[in-house]
Amino acid sequence: MMEKGQHRILIITIICAFFAGYFFLFPSVSYSRSNDEIFQRYFVDKGSEMKKGSDNIELMKKYILNQKDVNVRDDNGKTLLHYAAREGDLNMVKILLAKGADINAKDKDGRTPLHDAIAYNFMNEDFIIFLIENGADFNLKDNRGEIPLYGLAFGERDYKKIIEIFEVCLKKGWDIKKSVGANFLNEFLRRKHKEVSLFLLKQGIEFNDESLKIAIIKGYDDIFHILAEKGANLKQKNIIKFTCMADIENVNIIKILIEKGNIPNEEDVDACTFKGHKSAAIFLSDFIQRTQGKKIDIKKRCYLPPLPGTCKGLFEGAYFSNFDKTCHTFVHGGCGGHVVPFDSIEACKKICEGN
Questions:
Q1: N or C end: fewer C-beta atoms under 10 angstroms in the chain?
Q2: Could you tell me if 56 and 169 lie in one domain?
Q3: How many domains in the chain?
Q4: Is the pTM of this model over 0.85?
């Protein structure tokens, strides 16, 4: 009887022999279903014996060195290096590169191994740096027009590591102004990579109206001021109302927008009360009364009855009950004649239950 460990070794040996024989007999096949199956079993299927055997670097090395063409592709145009990069397997990558693997090979979506490495390795920035330092082109765009570095905006990453990757690219001649535009910056802003965004702005990256709006909505005062100093458009349509609709109250930004020539109106005050930004609502209402002679009741929304509307959505809002003089939550559909007095019960309490 064969022991369990011996049985496993025999299975791995048979599979390796099969793979080696396949490539020996059919070295010219580039886009076959069989190749896909090999790649999937070898690099993706965590439960396969072959995947378990991939921890054996000598076995892996022997397998790859026996291949006549390490740039063979699957149906999607991916090479062995794409799969190794996706797995974050540094030893595998080193062997493949030594064997002549194309580090900038593009699959059918125009994605390179560096694209895949960044997309799948959220906590392995050193591996990404290794690829870049060994010739991975960080400027190559996929079919969507995105360079590999765009993927760094996604996932939970250490901002220091992202900046370190950018600095490596800068040393290798990365021209941020030519390589990427405002959308690149905006993606990092949207995903709360504040420090990375500050770094990009210092490097002179382009920005647009959306950049300013995202900085406002996220409450990034310092980025707002940098954009303002760099000539951002502070007189965008409804910019004060947009500022009032942010989750974070910011009276200072509203003051700056008014200083730059924006004229507040009753809709702006209403937006601030809807979000519960009481200090901003009071400032705006006082300013309008002083400069325009209009008196605005910031508690107007406290008298609005809630209407759920005809749609079937499950959105939560709040209203003030004049019966028990307290705020309550209610569910509305999000459209079809709905009336939502306040964005949240906290907003309602700030406006209606306080003095």
A1: C
A2: yes
A3: 3
A4: no
